[in-house]
Specification:
α3 packs parallel to α9. The protein folds into 2 domains: about 160 residues, Alpha-Beta Complex (Aspartate Aminotransferase, domain 1), CATH 3.90.1150; about 240 residues, 3-Layer(aba) Sandwich (Aspartate Aminotransferase, domain 2), CATH 3.40.640.10. By secondary structure, it is of the alpha/beta class. It binds pyridoxal-5'-phosphate.
Length: about 425
């Protein structure tokens, strides 16, 4: 392990608030702050949820029927609706008993890791990845082993590394698809190979599909659950990203496992007891889930995808104009991309963290250093922002580059 306690893990929110602080300390900063750091698109007016969802929550709240406790595993009608929603893309039907409702996908991650942790166990996490997994694993004393994603192969999972890193104490491999932070979308063939490798090694797959269906490139989204009869899959998701309502805290933990490996009464009992501790998200939000999943207009999804696609293209094109950053792979999904920093072209920048702090102080642009997601001297850029903010941010990054580049220095001295 690379650090020795849960408290040593840098969280995305932690580092972003430090970046914000450093802008505020610079009192003469006249520029509007642009954040391409956080994955919460609801901050931008071009990313609004659908009125269908708002109406559904409002109706549920005003009905007076949903002020009480729900079963801790979730309201039956919400579980059923999520089972049906996910079954649309699977070769088999999920039942409501496969679905457990969580407080966002974050809590689904916690459930998965809590249920798998046992003394001596280890888990395979993608690198770069989503820091909550590492944080959660450390609280559970679950050893973390990192599997590199390969930037030159569309950020595919290094399956040789999966095989080399796993042993009899490995419990699961985490697959985030569409990917955060890389913006990758895995094709059917790659996912099939992942499933076959997991089967060979006797480990589960935890499929983080919080960005499910947010694929705007040439590769269509395929849920990992399609391979549920090859290997047991735990599918994690939420309304947060596809419906742009991260604050509603409505997620799911689903056993996409047609062969029923999780159907042992002891396992089900353990799930239920753990959910008794968690208590579940607000009942009226759960009550709105059937309407949200069944009645959201296709046009809303199309519009979101179109906006994300255009934003990702702006980033991809503007990055090409700035020599010190390079986009390894054109994003095809999610809301973020990884960009490689070439420090040799910069005169007085020591690493990705230094780059991000100086950029924040000088240009009021916030970008997440790659170190926060496991890749030093890379940057994670969130493109879920409005187009004028993106254009302005890249204008400023370009100025920043010109000011700090080796070349400019020579020219100025000349
Ligand atoms: C945003 C995100 C989550 C957390 O989702 P919430 O529903 O907001 O809790 C989990 N995994 C990944 C990869 C994410 O990007």
């Amino acid at each position: 392990m690379e650090s020795n306690g849960a408290t040593n893990t840098i969280t995305i929110k932690g580092i972003l608030s430090l970046l914000m602080q450093s802008i505020e300390e610079e009192d003469k900063s006249p520029k509007r702050v642009i954040s391409l750091g956080m994955g919460d698109p609801s901050a931008y007016s071009c990313f609004r949820t659908t009125p269908v969802a708002q109406q559904a929550v409002s109706d549920a709240l005003l009905s007076h029927d949903f002020h009480g406790y729900a079963p801790t595993v979730g309201l039956p009608q919400a579980r059923r609706a999520i089972a049906e929603y996910l079954s649309r893309d699977l070769p088999y039907k999920l039942s409501q008993d496969d679905v457990f409702i969580t407080s966002g996908c974050t809590q689904a991650i916690d459930v998965a890791l809590a249920m798998l942790a046992r003394p001596g166990a280890n888990i395979l996490l993608p690198r770069p990845g989503f820091p909550i997994y590492e944080l959660c694993a450390k609280f559970r004393q679950l050893e973390v082993r990192y599997v590199d994603l390969l930037p030159d192969s569309g950020w595919e999972i290094d399956l040789d590394a999966v095989e080399a890193l796993s042993d009899q104490n490995t419990v699961a491999l985490v697959v985030i698809n569409p990917g955060n932070p890389c913006g990758n979308v895995y094709g059917y063939q790659h996912l099939k190979k992942v499933a076959e490798m997991a089967k060979k090694l006797g480990i589960l797959v935890i499929a983080d599909e919080v960005y499910g269906h947010l694929a705007f490139g040439n590769t269509p989204f395929v849920p990992m659950g399609v391979f549920g009869s090859v290997v047991p899959v735990l599918t994690l998701g939420s309304l947060s990203k596809r419906w742009i309502v991260p604050g509603w805290r409505l997620g799911w933990f689903v056993t996409t496992d047609p062969l029923g490996s999780f159907k042992d009464p002891k396992i089900i009992e353990r799930f239920k007891k753990y959910f008794d501790i968690l208590g579940g998200p607000a009942t009226f939000i759960q009550a709105a889930v059937p309407t949200i999943l069944e009645q959201t207009d296709e046009l809303f999804f199309k519009k979101t995808l179109n906006t994300l696609k255009n934003s990702s293209v702006i980033c991809y094109e503007r990055i090409k104009e700035i020599p010190c950053i390079d986009c390894a792979h054109r994003p095809e999904g999610s809301m973020a991309m990884m960009v490689k920093l070439n420090l040799e072209l910069l005169e007085d920048i020591s690493d990705d963290i230094d780059f991000c702090f100086k950029l924040a102080r000088e240009e009021s642009v916030i970008i997440l250093p790659g170190t926060a997601v496991g890749l030093k001297n890379w940057l994670r850029i969130t493109f879920a922002a409005d187009q004028s903010s993106l254009e302005e941010a890249f204008n400023r990054i370009k100025c920043f580059y010109l000011r700090h580049s080796d070349q400019t220095h020579n020219i100025l001295e000349f």
